[in-house]
Amino acid sequence: MKHTSARQAPRNAEEHTFKRFDQELAHLNRIVLRMGGLVEDQIAKAMSALRDADLDTARNVVARDHVVNFLDVQADEQIVNLLALRQPVGKDLRMILSLGKTVTDLERIGDEAERIARMTIDIYSSSNPPPDARLLSDAFRMSTLATRMLHDVLDALARLDVEKAIQVARGDVELDSEFQAALRRLSTYIMEDARNVGHTINVTFIVKSLERIGDHSKNIAEYVVFLVKGKDVRHVSPESIDTGELGR
Amino acid sequence: MNATASEMLLVNEPPPPPPPAEPVAADPVPAGIETVGRITVDQPRMTSRNVSVMYGDKMGIEDVNLDIGKNEVLAMIGPSGCGKSTFLRCLNRMNDTVDVCRVTGTIRLDGEDVHDPRLDVVQLRARVGMVFQKPNPFPKSIYDNVAYGPRIHGLAEGRRETDAIVQRSLEKAGLWNEVRDRLEQPGTGLSGGQQQRLCIARAIAVSPEVILMDEPCSALDPIATARIEELIDELRENYTIVIVTHSMQQAARVSQRTAYFHLGRLIEVGETSQIFTNPRHDLTEDYITGRFG
User: Fold this and answer.
1) Do A5 and B279 lie within an 8 Å CB cutoff?
2) Is residue B8 included in any domain, yes or no?
3) B268, B291, B292: best mutation site toward chain A, by most A Cβ within 10 Å?
4) CA-CA distance, A210 to A109, in Å (whole number)?
5) So where are chain A's domains?
């Protein structure tokens, strides 16, 4: 329960008396959400390059990672300024800390997208015949799950939606078991035919990257819970997060 | 606002014998109060229950229930006119000096009711000392400023004992090294920060249990402020300190518990780290984050 009783004073919960603080927070928010949209697109492009054997797109993804890094640096600068000049407390402090951590995870997600693109380039520029669809099917199944997690958690962040964030955190289990299953299947391809080894190693890196994207999304989901509720739910199994207990 | 020496220290008549120590049951916390957070502490030095203050027919504070623990710094924050200074002044009955002011409810110091007619208010103010917004040294020498309280309270006999108390108090207030060679010079000749530390030394000299501070740094520069804050932190070992401040950063820096007042009510109280990272009441959140209209 959030307490709102006591006599009503004129208040506008959304705005600071000092308006520039609002503008600076909004600016930070925009950087983070823009970064989120960008890494989402990086993953989508990397996966479509893998599907369509599209080396140009894969190279574009690799090249575009520096934009993600640039936004990372920009967000950090904004955070340092906000901490130094505004001395935030309460939900402002939680917002800035959470966004700061989110930025780090988004940057790493960007790196994973870049890795997928590099693996794609490796796969299709080798002299071997391209891998058959069977070998790649796990990667696409996992990318559907990982992309949805990332999409949902960015949504939860934009709307400060704790329920949705907790759903994302819980969804990571499914992705992890997909990853385990994928590893088992990939090892059978190697056993079937040793000529599959090269492609299988690359695909293994790809599914590992997708698994990491799920982990980073889960981290962001936990930051959303901290941001809104002030409770640290990291290192707690998602099933044991009692949504009722999260009330203030 | 500034108390004169006579208000604070002057003894008009010999104090009555101390009231017999009666076993004090913990005052129950009335049901239905609006304060969010835990108002009680494990080792209370002072307790207040249902404390209300009326200025004429105007409500100053309403039904404040709050414990102040031993060796803790309690910060009281809130917008102007919220009642935090009024509550502070209740703790050593400074409000007695305001004619139209009527205080109801119970305030206890170590279990004794501070409004007990057998309790000498001058003695109370020695046990619950006060430091004001504007440094207010007496127009006397540095030495006499500190020695005044112990002398009139009969705490020191002869020059040697007085010397010892003066030195110890100035040392505790972090002022000794700066003034040891000019104790006979007027206290008013010191810098603002030094004057405030002199006032703290003066308060300490009568061995209080509680020190009340009403905006003690608002007239000081950042360095002098930092020295007072450092001093508050050190004094916590031996005293209970209640500080009213408009600087939220100061409340966050020096206190262990923070109480937020709004329109005469105690809205929320909690550990300072909790109040400043995750306040539970919307009004607290809006105030500390600067969203107050």
Assistant:
1) no
2) no
3) B291
4) 9
5) 19-240
> Is B21 within a domain?
no
**Using CA atoms, how far apart are residues B187 and B191, in angstroms rounded to an integer?**
9
Residue B26 lies in a domain: no
* Phi, psi for residue B26 in degrees, rounded to 5: -60, 130
Q: Are A201 and A222 within 8 A, CB to CB?
A: no
- Kindly report, residue by residue over A137-175, the tens digit of the pLDDT: 999 999 999 999 999 999 999 999 999 999 999 999 999
Which domain range does residue B208 map to?
Answer: 33-288
| Tally of structural domains, chain B | 1
pLDDT digits (tens, 9 = 90+) for A4-55: 444 333 334 568 888 889 999 999 999 999 999 999 999 999 999 999 999 9
List the CATH number of the domain containing B232.
3.40.50.300
Number of Cβ atoms within 10 Å of the Cβ of B96: 16
Residue B33 near chain A (CB below 8 Å) = no
Q: A–B: how many Cβ contacts below 8 A?
A: 76
Shortest Cα distance from B265 to chain A (angstroms)?
A: 8
CB contact at 8 A, A230 and A161: no
Q: Which one of A4, A9, A90 has the shortest CB-CB distance to B277?
A: A90
B252 and chain A in contact, CB less than 8 A: yes
- Distance (Å, whole) CA B186 – CA A27: 55
Give the bridge partners for B104, in sequence order.
B52
Distance, in Å, from the CA atom of A185 to the CA atom of B261, rounded to the nearest integer, reads: 64
Q: Identify the CA nearest to B67 among candidates B101, B19, B110.
A: B110
State the pTM of this model: 0.81
User: Which of A2, A3, A92 would you mutate first to test chain B, the one with the most B CBs within 10 A?
Assistant: A3
In three-state secondary structure terms, B154 is: coil
CA distance A109 to A151: 12
User: Per the domain annotation, does B105 fall within a domain?
Assistant: yes
- Of A45, A41, A35, A47, whose CA–CA distance to A143 is shortest? A47
Q: Which residues of A touch B267 (CB under 8 A)?
A: 6
Q: Do A94 and B262 touch (CB under 8 A)?
A: no
What chain B residue is nearest to A19 in terms of C-alpha separation?
Answer: B291
Q: Please determine, for residue B236, whether its predicted confidence score (pLDDT) is greater than 90.
A: yes
The token duo for A137 is: 């099917």
CATH topology of domain A19-240: Methane Monooxygenase Hydroxylase; Chain G, domain 1 (1.20.58)
- For residue range B14-46, list pLDDT tens digits in order: 444 444 444 444 455 454 457 999 999 999 999
Testing the interface with B: which of A2, A89, A92, A98 to mutate, by most B Cβ within 10 A?
A: A89
